[in-house]
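Final report, results section. Input specification for complex C-07:
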Amino acid sequence: NAGVMQNPRHLVRRRGQEARLRCSPMKGHSHVYWYRQLPEEGLKFMVYLQKENIIDESGMPKERFSAEFPKEGPSILRIQQVVRGDSAAYFCASSLGTGNEKLFFGSGTQLSVL
Amino acid sequence: DAKTTQPTSMDCAEGRAANLPCNHSTISGNEYVYWYRQIHSQGPQYIIHGLKNNETNEMASLIITEDRKSSTLILPHATLRDTAVYYCIVSVPNAGGTSYGKLTFGQGTILTVHP
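Structure output:
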């Protein structure tokens, strides 16, 4: 049973470009979370999605960031017009969604903005 | 979510038990205690969680005090691969009475296991 798959593992973008980060949850999991870890800082919750629905996006920056989890395919975290401050490790996690359960995290995407 | 307090760093000899403390004095009755760890450059890994009873699994044991204001994660026989940042997190259920994965990670404890 494959774990949470994230790609790419490393992504380099120039300022102003778009970044698309993909996350495939564990088999059978329909709940996806995105977290961001800035250099030398802790992990911060960004968004919680279920299939085709955003449940909690309280941690998402108001502009340039969006997330989706379509009926078919992986979850996508999209960052438009990237700036240097967006450079961070972005982790995706999934869960069964039964409540009080553990999260399974992927290996992350390291985004570097030049 | 209730705040947690952990020591910044700890050392442990390989083969010995590692006991990682966590204070959560403002924890509410319906909040669970979770432990995760993050090995350098990897995604966090779930270790264990509990509400008020002590818990044990293949990785660790979780001891929660009777007043639930503190807990201890025990790695019974630490190995070099257990060197990581360990996070103690308390998670509040949502309105439906269950908890989803909106976790507040603090700075954690850097555990170094040495030969």
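The first strand of chain B starts at residue 9 and ends at 13. Chain B touches chain A through 27 residues (CB under 8 Å). This concludes the modelling results for the funded period.
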